[in-house]
Design brief:
pyridoxal phosphate; binds pyridoxal-5'-phosphate; Aminotrans_3; Aminotrans_3_PPA_site; 16 helices
Length: about 450
């Protein structure tokens, strides 16, 4: 593939370590190099067009050619290309963005800390949990409950809160301080004959037992994504979060909502918290905050936590935490413009209009011989791949069917994502019904390819 040593492909292989890539195999296959974007489409360097059915990494909400974001970045670059917010300095975009966020986040949240990525926002959330509990004189109340399959990023502590084996084995993670509870997928983890209501009862009971066993006085917070994306697009049963939160409240355990994927309309409401009845004490956002045009994330904390940490920092004489680029003015200006576009174009109404079409097309594929369950909400969805529908036998990773379906869809000019046993869609929020048909037609054909090659 990369016989010419001066080709971009050869230079890529010679110089780059790619995230989430089989590095050995990459030496043979080389990269797909994306060169430009237009709406929901991206084009590779040979000019081939792809419908980006994953919005990049679940992130590019406004598509790949939103000029207003380019202009917002340019204006800010010309005025003040960089500055920081340490030591009480500030910039107009970081102030305006914090205000704009606080207008739309769930009630009770009152202050914003900026960061640059989802992992950092979650790491920062954990540190706030620790600092807060020191502030209120509960220095033992520090451990954080994460969930099996949860994905919160890959920095040392976010990676520890992440509940995925691949992020742990060979990486010496998790480090201490994390407890683990169940993944709320009834399809994958329900016991034979167990109803969804019984399943939720069991999960709630398991959480209660875990907390009692480990001691509530040692547990500071619980972290969850409203819809877990990378763990399989796990849509929880309707009463799961209210029931879980009731247990947490009783034990004085904070709720951290990781809205890195769900935030800003993905689930059909502004936040996954709104869709699933979550009342967070801390919320993290990234990705669609800036339509992923520039790296920026935020940890939004309750007014109650903010008051305590402010007083504690006052006592210590410093709040010794913060990233050089926190609230970076260019990233903040782009994020602010992104939020303005969401409001002006009523992106939530658009999602509510087109999402039923995506969900209906996904559900129709539940009849496919390879598909055990079609699940999703808003503009995010997944097909669970199985070898046997009746016993819900999940396709073994070794069969390689998920990646094969992904490759066949890509040949057809559509980007979806596969895990070994599921395929995912999460298109830009601006997608039209006709583009949804294009995406789903290609996915359907790629599933047929997968079936033909599995047999
Ligand atoms: N949290 C969730 C729910 C995510 O999906 C991701 C990334 O996909 C992260 C956190 C980590 O974000 P980042 O890759 O920006 O560090």
């Amino acid at each position: 593939m990369a016989s010419n040593p001066n080709s971009l492909a050869a230079r890529d292989i010679a110089s780059l370590i790619h995230p989430y890539t089989n590095l050995e195999k990459h030496k043979e296959t080389g990269p797909t190099i994306m060169a430009r974007g237009d709406g929901v489409y991206v084009y590779d360097d040979s000019g081939k067009r792809y419908l980006e059915g994953m919005a990049g990494l679940w992130s590019t909400s406004l598509g790949f050619s939103e000029k207003r974001l380019v202009e917002a970045a340019t204006r800010q670059m010309e005025a003040l290309p960089t500055y920081h917010i340490f030591g009480g300095r500030s910039t107009e975009p970081s102030i305006e963005l914090a205000e704009a966020l606080l207008k739309i986040v769930p009630k009770g949240l009152g202050k914003v800390l900026f960061a640059n990525s989802g992992s950092e926002a979650n790491d920062q959330a954990a540190k706030i949990v620790w600092f807060y509990h020191n502030a209120i004189g509960k220095p033992l109340k520090k451990r954080i409950i994460g969930r099996v399959r949860g994905y919160h990023g890959i920095t040392v502590f976010a990676g520890s809160m992440t509940g995925q084996v691949a992020n742990h084995i060979e990486w010496d993670l998790p480090i201490g301080g994390v407890l683990r509870t169940d993944c709320p997928s009834h399809y994958l983890f329900g016991e034979p004959g167990e109803t969804e209501a019984q399943f939720v009862d069991r999960l709630v009971g398991n959480l209660e037992a875990l907390i009692e066993r480990e001691g509530p006085e040692t547990i500071g917070a619980f972290i969850a994504e409203p819809v877990n994306g990378a763990g399989g697009v796990i849509v929880p049963p309707k009463d799961y979060f209210p029931r879980i939160q009731e247990v947490l409240r009783r034990h004085d355990i904070l709720m951290i909502a990781d809205e890195v994927i769900c935030g800003f309309g993905r689930t059909g409401q502004m936040f996954g918290c709104d869709t699933f009845g979550i009342e967070p004490d801390i919320m993290t956002v990234a990705k669609a905050l800036s339509s992923a045009y520039l790296p920026i994330s935020a940890t939004v904390i309750s007014e109650a936590i903010a008051e305590k940490i402010t007083a504690h920092a006052g006592k210590i004489g410093n709040f010794a935490h913060g990233f050089t680029y926190a609230g970076h003015p260019v990233a903040a200006a782009v994020a602010l413009e992104t939020l303005r576009i969401y409001e002006e174009r009523d992106i939530i109404a658009h999602v509510q209009e087109v999402a039923p079409h995506l969900q209906a097309r996904l559900r129709a594929l539940a009849a496919h011989p390879l598909v055990g369950e079609a699940r999703g909400v808003g503009l995010i969805g997944a097909l669970q791949l199985v070898t046997d529908k009746a016993s819900r036998t999940v396709l073994p990773a070794a069969a390689g069917i998920g990646p094969l379906i992904q490759a066949r869809a890509m040949e057809r000019g559509v980007i979806i994502r596969a895990s070994p046993d599921a395929v995912f869609v999460c298109p830009p929020l601006i997608i039209t019904k006709a583009e949804i048909d294009e995406l789903m037609d290609a996915l359907s054909a790629a599933l047929d390819d997968g079936l033909a090659e599995a047999e």
